[in-house]
Amino acid sequence: MLSFRASIFIRTGLKNRGLATVSDAQAPSFRIPLIDFSRFRNATAASEKKEVALEVVSAFKESGFIYLSGHGIPALTIQNAFAKSAEFFRMPTDVKDKLAWEDPRSNRGYVKIGRERVTQSTDAAEIAALREKAPDFKETMEIGRDWDSAWKNQWPAEADAPEFKQTMLGFFQQCHELHVHVMRSIAIGLELEESFFDEKIQEQCHNLRLLSYPPIKRALLDNEGQARAGAHSDYGTLTLLFQDSVGGLEAKNPHTGVFIPATPIPGTIVVNVGDLLARWSNDVLRSTLHRVVAPAAKPLNAQEAITPARQSIAFFCNPNFTAEIACLPNCGKEVKYPPINTEAYIVGRLAATYS
């Protein structure tokens, strides 16, 4: 079993890939720590919580990414969510298309391959051009809180996807509860009251995203700018990412510009800081660019190869849509950003991202 002190250290002078921008002697290591979060969840003393909280905040300051073990979501629960996700994407296209994503405020429903193009750009015309040239080769299903009176989830019929709704609602709730605990650790690590964020995230304005990356001929991914999911940062507070064993997630070393694999570690969740939390913390916590690339392809013949399928599940954690995001206490004397409303920010980013 891996210790909580285990970490992934990767040198960034990848000369064989032509990616290095500095020499090996100059390149800082890119570190994604592995943190056993059960020590925070099961702590009996404030000092025990503080120790873990400082590890979490330190990692989010340096790389913006952690691997979380001991997170409290049972392995069987995660396996079942993956199984139901796979069943959903195996449904006929015409059945999935009836559940199509329609509105950035709702942010619910099925997104077919090529409709989304994640990028750091906020210019709608530029994003549209990127989408036309090199769309993200994936399909997704977006799920929000189910009790929302204005914006409804788009559930498949029970006969088409047995137990899908029940499974995803339960999974959504467990992810929210983990989010609350991680945000409490961040509060402690920033010298705030442990409950500081509780009333700012309890409305559960989150997005559970199921992702399917179908097999694709390698040549189709060789176009300029093409990827399974382009380089981007996330929008909200945190992202909880559940990976399969295929891999493909890469985080960008902010010191060198080199993308480094976030190799799947069984039993862990990858957690990264989103843009709103970075803004909230006055950039004390780092929102790091990341992307999804295709793993090694299997040869079909002398001229062509095909990539394996990949599954992942992302839980995009957001503050309450009514929350004002303004510089937190203890996060610098010079405020970098004016206050902003959560809903205005999130919906604006989503509106530009989709066609």
UniProtKB/TrEMBL annotation:
The keyword Iron applies. Residues 201-319 form the Fe2OG dioxygenase domain. Keywords: Iron, Metal-binding, Oxidoreductase. The keyword Iron applies. One of its GO terms (molecular function) is oxidoreductase activity. Coiled coil: none annotated. Transmembrane segments: none annotated. Belongs to the iron/ascorbate-dependent oxidoreductase family. PANTHER family: 2-OXOGLUTARATE (2OG) AND FE(II)-DEPENDENT OXYGENASE SUPERFAMILY PROTEIN-RELATED (PTHR47990). This is Fe2OG dioxygenase domain-containing protein.
